[in-house]
Design goal:
This is Helix-turn-helix domain-containing protein. It comes from Microbacterium plantarum. Pfam families: HTH_20. By secondary structure, the chain is mainly α. Helix content is about 50%, strand content about 10%. The protein is built from seven helices and five strands.
């Protein structure tokens, strides 16, 4: 099965969640999804790590089927190209609450992802003065504390996922030659406050 055949990879085990929870691996997977196939050397330049270290992290991602070999993009047969196996990775934290090892692995992964989201948003805030004002005005951030029932929160999750998928389809219609379309981060959270 190639990445074109799968829209999502699903993590089922504590071991797979622990593999992905490493910040460098999360970053490498994100780069492969956003930029397409790369070699360890190319990825090393982006994340400022030695190709040997990158190769190690890539082998860990491949071991849980999150990445796969890609067709070579150059004549150099020594280069090994990698691509994301799917457009997204999913797991359901609620399914892991009863198993301490799975719960801990899921929690570690959630926290690593939250740190990446926070770092990306901080980079955006720092870059705001250099961005075209119309792009800054088009962006959105905000929060509300809502009082909802379980059924209402479930319905909101369904609506948010549907909205995200609709805009994902719009994104897919833009190719790299379309200079009017740029990468846009979409992050949403809705959860019961502890």
């Amino acid at each position: 099965m190639t990445s074109a055949d799968r829209s999502a990879s699903r993590l089922e085990t504590a071991a797979s969640m622990r593999v992905l929870a490493h910040p460098t691996r999360l970053r490498l997977l994100g780069i492969l999804r956003e930029n397409g196939p790369q070699t360890a050397a190319q990825l090393g330049e982006i994340v400022d790590e030695a190709p040997g270290t990158i190769s190690y992290h890539l082998s860990k991602l491949a071991s849980i089927d999150l990445i796969e070999p890609a067709e070579p993009r150059s004549a150099d047969q020594r280069e090994r190209w990698w691509q994301a196996a799917a457009a997204e990775t999913t797991w359901e934290p609620a399914e892991h609450l009863d198993d301490p090892a799975q719960r801990a692995a899921s929690s570690a992964l959630e926290k690593s992802i939250a740190q990446i989201y926070a770092a990306r948003y901080s980079e955006y805030v720092d870059a705001m003065p250099t961005l075209p004002p119309e792009w800054v005005a088009a962006g959105a951030t905000g929060d509300r504390t809502l009082r909802l029932t379980l059924d209402e929160l479930t319905a909101m999750r369904t609506e948010l996922e549907s909205l995200m998928h609709r805009w994902q389809e719009a994104s897919a219609r833009h190719d790299d030659a379309d200079e009017t379309a740029v990468p846009v981060a979409l992050v949403y959270q809705a959860y019961r406050r502890p």
